[in-house]
């Protein structure tokens, strides 16, 4: 009976006549096609359709959308297509919800099954979607011709497992690890399938995000030297928990976003004491040489990025001292050094009512000498997607108990703008120049005293200044995540001010 049903279902879907509505339809074989009902005409209202794709044991399911037009909504609350890795309610892992006209990402399962769901409400219909699926063998070892030269940026082989045997995550997927290296934004790096690559020019060689939710990334074992004889490069395997950084560079040599001292990655409210030197771009802004007022970030030997609201009332450079290499707010650290400020540059369109364009630069009178406790953070190139786990640091209030002595750190997820602007959150107050980050239930946040400090995300071993601590309601409250200045909107402004001042 099951075999007869399977054959009939597969035949019907290949003929594009079966909507899959009603009981879940079981799909199999080496490949297949799934469409919404009536495709390419508009789908029906009140649709409830499910497909379970199950291929042979030992293989994975690769799904690719060819066309997609489903009623749009900021949170896909009307009509949507959803996907899960697996088909059992208790164990299937949610991948994502999709609507609108943008093609959902191509995804590949970890196991041999996937679940596709389509729902529509009582009004508005669209053309719907068409997707294809294919049974694929998991990535195996490197081909004999796999090799690279230099630091492996040119590697284009098909190795898709790490040195410890973990399967690589697809570059076009944000599951199980959110990351920046979407092939759409980085076509020059050959980010195909789940193949090992080196988009950030890591000196350790090619690497990949892993399909293991507990291990964010690892190096891959690939041969170096394409011409003539070959040698095998055994890069040291680095294993980090989800959301952690790699620390592959040495902060003391001036490379950005690479602490020489690895941070502890797991307070800011609900966070924890930071390891000394692990956030070497963090600075303390002292007003009249004594009182910690705000934080900031080293972005160049003579330049600090901070929030405009920190300096709005005190724009005179002589009012400020920048302390680098500091760990304890009330004590003297042997690693700390103070720098006078020669220029304070606020963004020309800073709006103190909306707290919009909340960014400022401070030029130091003397250059910072980089070492293990003072080095720059990288500037971002694209925005971190919703759900990305990032870190905020500072000496801000810890839940009403006053300012801490030890530098604090907190791990928080990016909240997409549509959610953060919804009625239960900030009800339209979030502009395109802002990022929200925090938990729905609250508990971890940046607070007073953390203003101007860094909000950093890690991609392939490199920490970038995705946000600057700006504002929020209260501290670590439910539905009120921290709000940060979106640094990607100001890269040209930053570069212009540094070049011409």
TrEMBL record:
All residue ranges annotated as the Kringle domain in the record: 146-226
Domain CUB: 21-136
Biological process, per Gene Ontology: fertilization; proteolysis
Signal peptide segment: 1-15
Entry keyword annotation includes Iron-sulfur: no
Residues covered by region (Disordered): 231-254
Protein name as annotated: PLG protein
Keywords attached to this entry: Disulfide bond, Hydrolase, Kringle, Protease, Serine protease, Signal
Record bears the keyword Lyase: no
Positions with biased composition (Low complexity): 231-243
All copies of domain Peptidase S1, residue ranges: 268-499
Protein source organism: Branchiostoma lanceolatum (Common lancelet)
Species lineage: Eukaryota, Metazoa, Chordata, Cephalochordata, Leptocardii
């Amino acid at each position: 009976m099951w075999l007869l049903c399977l054959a009939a279902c597969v035949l019907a879907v290949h003929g594009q006549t079966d909507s899959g509505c009603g009981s879940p339809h079981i799909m199999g074989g080496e490949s297949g096609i799934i469409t919404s009902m009536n495709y390419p005409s508009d789908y029906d209202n009140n649709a409830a359709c499910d497909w379970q794709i199950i291929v042979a044991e030992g293989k994975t399911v690769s799904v690719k959308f060819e066309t997609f037009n489903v009623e749009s909504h900021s949170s896909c609350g009307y009509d949507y297509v959803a996907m899960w890795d697996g088909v059992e309610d208790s164990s299937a892992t949610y991948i994502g919800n999709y609507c609108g006209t943008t093609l959902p990402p191509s995804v590949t399962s970890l196991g041999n099954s996937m679940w596709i769901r389509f729902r529509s409400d009582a009004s508005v219909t669209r053309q719907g979607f068409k997707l294809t699926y294919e049974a694929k063998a998991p990535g195996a070892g490197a081909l004999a011709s796999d090799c690279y030269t230099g630091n492996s940026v040119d590697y284009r082989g098909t190795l898709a497992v790490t040195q410890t045997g973990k399967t690589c995550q697809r570059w076009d997927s944000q599951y199980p690890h959110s990351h920046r290296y979407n092939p759409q934004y980085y076509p020059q790096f050959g980010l195909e399938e789940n193949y090992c690559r080196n988009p950030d020019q890591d000196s350790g060689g090619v690497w990949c995000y892993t399909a293991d939710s507990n291990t964010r990334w690892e190096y891959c074992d690939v041969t170096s030297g394409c011409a003539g004889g070959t040698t095998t490069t055994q890069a040291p395997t680095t294993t980090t928990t989800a959301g952690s950084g790699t620390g592959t560079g040495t902060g003391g040599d001036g490379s950005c976003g690479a602490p020489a001292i690895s941070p502890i990655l797991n307070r800011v409210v609900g966070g924890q004491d930071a390891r000394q030197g692990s956030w070497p771009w963090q600075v303390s802004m002292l007003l009249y040489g004594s009182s910690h007022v705000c934080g900031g970030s080293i972005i160049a030997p003579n330049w600090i990025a901070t929030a405009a609201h920190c300096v709005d009332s005190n724009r005179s450079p002589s009012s400020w001292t920048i302390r680098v290499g500091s760990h304890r707010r009330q004590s003297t650290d042997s690693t700390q050094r103070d720098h006078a400020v020669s220029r304070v540059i606020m963004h020309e369109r800073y709006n103190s009512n909306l707290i919009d364009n909340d960014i400022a630069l401070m030029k130091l009178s003397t250059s910072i000498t980089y070492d293990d406790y003072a080095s720059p953070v990288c500037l971002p190139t694209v925005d971190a997607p919703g759900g990305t786990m990032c870190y905020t640091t500072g000496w801000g209030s810890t839940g009403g108990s006053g300012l801490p002595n030890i530098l604090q750190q907190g791990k928080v997820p990016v909240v997409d703008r549509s959610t953060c602007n919804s009625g239960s959150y900030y009800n339209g107050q979030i502009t395109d120049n802002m990022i929200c980050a925090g938990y729905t239930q609250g508990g971890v946040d940046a607070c007073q005293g953390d203003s101007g400090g860094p909000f950093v995300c890690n991609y392939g071993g490199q920490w970038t200044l995705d946000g600057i601590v700006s504002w929020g309601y209260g501290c670590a409250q439910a539905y009120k995540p921290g709000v940060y200045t979106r640094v990607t909107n100001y890269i040209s402004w930053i570069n212009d001010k540094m070049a011409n001042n």
